[in-house]
Design a protein that fits this description.
alpha+beta; OB fold (Dihydrolipoamide Acetyltransferase, E2P); BirA Bifunctional Protein, domain 2; elongated; 476 residues; eight-stranded mixed β-sheet
């Protein structure tokens, strides 16, 4: 760094601005310049390679579109050739010159003019060794992106992933909406919210834990029939390869449709999004081989548990259920209610299912916002998508009976009062909205976990800047 700062001072003495605000030439992208043999072009970018041979210097210049070799000759540049000693790997420059093909067959620019755009004062890590420590890569993500084109490609695919989902829903007649991020009552999911404080109103608020589920259902009450939202939501829960505390989610709500209608739409949407972002429907995800292109089957929640654990959740008592969890060494809290115990048992066998399948027939105890089945009211019209042993989407026929909803909220609030921070909060205003009448509605939500699984990466690897502990102040 000391050497580079000395060069910076020398550059300033030469009356050269090391940080100009505009380009000197009209640039084209490097990918286009590679097609312009025998024509003069101007390109810009960061220097990532430098090979000096006396009166000739070869430089690798990179922009977002690609890489090109620059050819600097003393006989062409004259005295300005000397100033190249002030330029380092990592600097940004612009050059103008004629495109030609070297004897080795590499397309290059024979530089006639060049200008410094940004002087870097901290050396880049070696492009060969790169950043090996995982936390260091996340903390210095900008360096990781410089050194890895494959990493940049992940985020290009992620942008296509969300945009193709957005386009699909809009083409199906859904309206994109925005709902509150700060809420008086955190609702729409079983999750522990983050708490913040509003100074002007002097009240505590929660960061949303769902993509506006209860707000979007209020829109159904208000007369909208097809809405969706894509945005960030926040859950104050543990770290894992599959979970984040703040992440992107999509949720849609569809009036006059039930969970069967929703399943058909979602299967079509997943196939469209996977093909758009990855160009394929076959994926190897860990130990699971997954073919999204086939017709998705349905499996029953209760029957699957019977087949894999011999436990019938329609008949087992709470005490026997606790004993079963102990026998299987599945941890639970003393005050956990029946729904939490059933969910823990289910999650213990979910990893065995490759999918894609629709898991249906959930018990009402694990589904406080879903509509009951008419013939078997202890179960609800809900589905989850299981891919590679994990939940990759959740939908149901929404509960629109205000009396039933109030009773379920009260049950959830009682669990919360006993210490279950993931239990849902009672929302009297939402019940009031239902009392005015909400039409039959189906809702569905999916998070960016789906993208990370299809990409075959831990979820933090598919986040540009994952949350980390603060660095020590003395760290460089």
């Amino acid at each position: 760094m000391d050497d580079r700062i000395s060069k910076l001072e020398e550059i300033k003495k030469l009356k050269i601005n090391p940080y100009p605000s505009k380009l000197f030439f009209k640039r084209i992208e490097i990918s286009e310049a590679l097609k312009k043999e025998s024509r003069e072009v101007a390109v810009v970018g960061r220097i990532l390679g430098w090979r000096g041979h006396g009166n000739v210097i070869f430089v690798d210049l990179v922009d977002e579109s690609g890489k090109i070799q620059l050819f600097f000759q003393k006989k062409l540049l004259g005295d300005k050739f000397k100033t190249l000693k002030l330029i380092d790997i990592g600097d940004f420059i612009e050059v103008k010159g004629k495109v030609f093909e070297t004897v080795a067959g590499e397309i290059s620019v024979d530089v006639g003019k060049f200008q410094l755009l940004t002087k870097s004062i901290r050396p880049l890590p070696s492009t060969w060794f790169g950043l090996k420590d995982e936390e260091e890569r996340y903390r210095r993500r900008y360096l990781d992106l410089i050194l890895s084109e494959d990493l940049k490609d992940i985020f290009r695919k992620k942008a296509v992933f969300w945009q193709s989902m957005r386009n699909f829903l809009i083409e199906k007649g859904f309206l994109e909406v925005e709902t509150p991020v700060l809420e008086n009552t955190a609702g729409g999911a079983d999750a522990n919210p983050f708490v913040t404080h509003h100074n002007a109103l002097d009240i505590d608020l929660y960061l949303r834990i769902s993509m506006g589920e209860l707000w979007q259902k209020r829109l159904m009450v208000g007369g909208f029939e097809k809405t969706f939202e894509i945005g960030r939501q926040f859950r104050n829960e543990g770290l894992s390869r599959e979970h984040l505390q703040d992440y992107s989610q999509m949720e849609f709500y569809w009036a006059y449709a039930n969970y069967e209608d929703s399943m058909a739409l979602v299967e079509e949407m997943y196939k469209h999004v996977a093909k758009s972002a990855f160009g394929k429907l076959d994926f190897q995800i860990g130990e699971h081989k997954v073919d999204l292109g086939k017709k998705w089957e349905k499996i029953d929640y209760r029957q699957t548990l019977i087949d894999k654990t011999k436990v019938d959740i329609a008949k087992i008592s709470d005490s026997d259920l606790r004993e079963e969890l102990k026998k299987r060494k599945i941890g639970f809290e003393k005050n956990d209610e029946r729904g939490r115990l059933i969910d823990l048992l289910w999650k213990s066998i979910r990893k065995e299912i490759s999918g894609p399948v629709f898991l249906v027939g959930h018990p009402v105890e694990v589904s406080p916002l879903a509509k009951r089945m008419e013939k078997t009211p202890n179960f609800v019209e809900r589905y989850q998508i299981i891919i590679a042993g994990s939940e990759m989407g959740n939908g149901y026929s929404e509960l629109n009976d205000p009396i039933d909803q109030k009773e379920r909220f009260e049950s959830q609030q009682a669990m919360r009062d006993k210490g279950d921070l993931d239990a849902q909060m009672e929302d009297d205003d939402f019940v009031r909205a239902l009392e005015y009448g909400m039409p039959p509605v189906s809702g569905f939500g999916v998070s960016e976990r789906l993208f990370s699984f299809l990409a075959g990466k831990p979820i933090r690897e598919t986040v540009l800047f994952p949350l980390l502990r603060p660095e020590n102040r003395g760290d460089n």
